[in-house]
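Quick one, T. Sequence first:
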Amino acid sequence: MKISYSWLKQLIKTDKTPQEISLILTNIGLEVESLEKVQTIPGGLEGLVIGYVEERMQHPNADRLSVTKVNVGGPEPLQIVCGAPNVAAGQKVVVATVGTTVHPNEGEPFKINKSKIRGEVSEGMICAEDEIGLGGSHAGIMVLAEDAPVGLEAKKYFNVDDDYLFEIGLTPNRADAASHLGVARDLAAYLRTGYELPNVDAFAVENENLIIDVKVEATDACPRYSSVSISGVTVKPSPDWLKDKLKVIGLRPINNIVDATNYVLHELGQPLHAFDADQIAGKKIIVKKCEEGTPFVTLDNVERKLSAEDLMICDAEKPLCIAGVFGGIESGVTEQTTNIFLESAYFNSVSVRKTSKRHALKTDASFRFERGTDPEMTVFALKRAALLIKEIAGGQISSPISDLYPVKANPFEVAIQYQNVIDLIGQDIPTVEIKEIITALGITIATETAEGLDLRVPAYKVDVTRECDITEEVLRIYGYNNIHIPAKVNASLAYTAKPNKENVQNLVADMLTANGFIEIWCNSLTRLANSKNEAEAVQILNPLSSDLNAMRQSLLQPALESVAYNVNRKNADIKFYEFGKTYHLINEKYVERPRLLLVVSGAKQGEQWNQQSTPSNFYNLKAAVDAIIIRLGLANYQTDEISDENFAYGLKYFRGDKTLVSFGAVTNADKKKADLSKDIFYADFDWAFVLDALKKNKIINKEVPKYPAVRRDLSLLVDQDITFDQLKTIAFKAERKLVKNVQVFDVYQGDKLPEGKKSYALNFTLQDEEQTLTDKQIDAIMQKIIANLAQTANAEIR
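Structure tokens:
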């Protein structure tokens, strides 16, 4: 939100500098993200002065140039060579002296230097209006009135003042501060001073020649609707002062009627809309909801299909405007407009928000209506706008104010206890100061006791409805920086159930990071189309957009979007991990499931001068998964291949009917959704089950074995459907005590083997912790293993 310093000072009298106000606003919760000096005219006419042309002579070496003597208030007149055809002695002109930087309407700024032009010295430049940003004419130099004071700075003569622009990061709950008035109220509360509303006492009905009948059918979506008619206006460009005000805050001037409504919007925070009264059929305005699918062309010349839930401003025949959001093309103010109907309403914030999101329309009006406007401001803003329009567009107020307000918005009634406020803030603030802050914020004290207050909070403070909200308001104005930090911190020991979730997560995160993985945080909101099971999808009732209309059922798709983002920016070597949650609706209950996701793609490692880069594969991902399993000390799990829609191929580690982790290759369908084509591998840990499994882990301390381990290798011929994990399980069952490890170091499949067969080369590590194994013992163990492999897996020794 943009706030002008000079505009703000029209509402609150203060001698605080822009820099001081910037710090104050930030301290009271209106964070100033930037403060910049702005000039309505580029360059601010710096260095330009009013001069008097004392002499004008023909240039001796050029027919189209003149040599002038110009008095600019210095000890001697300046000699300036001028090419304008209208320059003459006795004129008051604008002069750019040597060293001045001139900012023309077109082209880059340039600096005036002392120079020779066709042999004659020139000590400045007599300016045309387009050369200094004061107009568009280049027919000749700008000739001023005879009473223009010689030597006066041009910026003072033309009343060009520098302004400062505050860029405020307005939080969604601070709808009350979404205007210059709102900021002035907060600033006045902090400074314990007053603020001034614009004077509307001059408002008066001049005739009743333009009565527009108003009817509100949808009172739930439009609790208050105020309006007035103005006849005989002249639509034309706004005066310079109004254009300058709007330009400072980044608005493009359109015409005097629209600019007046925009001015009041940013001044008071109340959106208004001006209709061409002659385009209102039947001289009737009906606030209602239209039939589903009704076509409507908005001001941007786009036809939109209305929802039956959209609140519309209609006449006797057709819709004219999407209430609180956007106007229609047929009823807008044009250069031919002479009579206007001015609307100032209070619309239901939820209704406006849904309509704005539904049609993807964002306007200054919808921004404020969505957050909640002041229901008591509609008539005042209407009077303010009507007087402003009369001032700059002429016309007469041709109807009484129509104000349909069937159910008055009452102030919020909140009771507070002083001690609760002090306890929550953490500092003993005098009750007198608490009362001063509360009343300075415009909150009324209904009743008072020694212990607390019964308050009535104005309706424009939409987020102040509880005792804790009042406490926050007090703390804002009192100042967060004024809360003392205690010299000591009291703490108590607390029992933490094991395993400690945070410690385990940090342990795994540190290990992954040390191995080249990068942690990502993806949005929990995603497209409904990404849900694999729409019946379990948790849909957003009021989505920000169609791309963010459901909670994610898997961490994969948002992570793939991150992969695509990186790949498109030439960062194709991916090793990501994310701790997050998935969301499901199961048996009408919402279920959150913590997960850990690993994603691997691109090269296994970066390019090196001494080795070739190799692409990542399934086994690189498996190594990372196994590293986590081993680091957490998880054992006694089973392995099986995956055959479902979530993986092109892969494995899962499981215990009983619960899966610890599933990992494998991303399917083509999932890659297509993210516009990816390269191989991507991912692992999905059920983090809740992992933590539950850790509870059963027992830590056993052992001495380092004193006796040596022995390795034996076997080459086996097995059926193609036999897995290494099956062979490993058979070996451990054959000798649980002495077989310490089984590894595969070669797998072969080819035409030299019988059809349907493959070859495994395994190594077995044997160790007895109490004695050195003899050859006889080793041979007996290996024969037992071979026999079990042959019997259970039909393995043949090669």
